[in-house]
Amino acid sequence: MASTSPLRITVAGASGRMGCTLIRALAEAEDLRLAFALERAGHPDSGQDAGTIAGLPPLKVPISDKFEAALGASDAVLDFTAPPASVALAEAAAKAHIVHVIGTTGYSAEDMNRVQAAAKEAVIIKSGNMSLGINLLAALVRAAAKALPNYDIEILEMHHRMKVDAPSGTALLLGEAAAAGRGIALQGHEVRGRDGIAGARPDGAIGFASLRGGTVVGDHLVTLAGPFERIELAHRAEDRMIFARGALAAARWGQGKMPGLYSMADVLGL
To answer: What is the pLDDT of residue 58?
Structure first.
């Protein structure tokens, strides 16, 4: 029986922290191969070998800004970039009818409208966090929020000093899980930071706090505080490879699926 050719994968943001991690993860996978490595026009690494940039032997895949051509010759694109680039990639993935795996966070409502429109023609798998552990944690948070409807929920996250958006996409994912457990919408019930005379805590609020510093990959703590007791559910990421392996799993899972906007909960059957 003839062997199946590896899936052709494009990595967007190939020179970044996650881009390099994705390239290293692809180098370990027998059923996937790096086909294209993308960066913005004028990036200082343009033309460099993607393997060399990621700390590997040369892969003979130069870093390029030709994203439409790359997606047209790929089976999936892995995207941990920034919202403007990610939206453009979603629209290109729709034209190419390929799988788009999005780990980008910090979207506006208009950004999401465009991604949802692209998902009519492409399989788009979007998550604030690609790790198995975080998605399991979200399921636990949802169950706890439902079981303890009168407990106050607070979500604390910490990331490295270079992270630009807050709360993190993962914190918002956990907040959405808590809201779903309560049968409410997160919007209208979230409290993001407190300063000065903030007043008493509103009933049913879901609070967020963000810390930034050092090289922290990602720490998340969900506290449910009730009368004379607290339940704490935590996750600490120790290596970005957990996100990369999740993204690769999403790229595999998306092959042959109907166009639509999916999450890692769909990929993991949660």
So the answer is: 96
Rounded average pLDDT over 75-85? 96
CB 247 within 8 A of CB 130: yes
H/E stretch holding 157 = strand 152-159
Q: How far apart are CA 61 and CA 75, in angstroms?
A: 16
Read off the pLDDT of residues 130-187 as tens digits, 9 standing for 90 and up.
Answer: 998 999 999 999 999 999 999 999 999 999 999 988 999 899 999 999 999 999 999 9
Lowest mean pLDDT among 116-120, 125-129, 209-213: 125-129
78 half-sphere exposure, CB direction, 13 A CA radius:
32
Catalytic residues: 159, 163
- Which residues lie below 8 Å from residue 75, measured CB to CB, with a gap of 6+? 7, 8, 9, 98, 99, 251, 255
CB 263 within 8 Å of CB 127: yes
What is the C-alpha to C-alpha distance for residues 270 and 266, in angstroms, rounded to an integer?
Answer: 6
d(CA 198, CA 179): 22
Contact predicate 102/79, CB 8 Å: yes
DSSP-assigned letters across all residues of 11-30: EESTTSHHHHHHHHHHHH-S
Q: What CA–CA distance (Å, rounded) separates 55 from 258?
A: 36
Q: What is the pLDDT of residue 122?
A: 97
Which residue, 40, 58, 41, is CA-closest to 49?
58
Q: What is the rounded CA–CA span in Å between residue 246 and residue 231? A: 27
What pLDDT is stored for residue 113 in this prediction? 97
* pTM of the predicted structure, to 2 decimals: 0.82
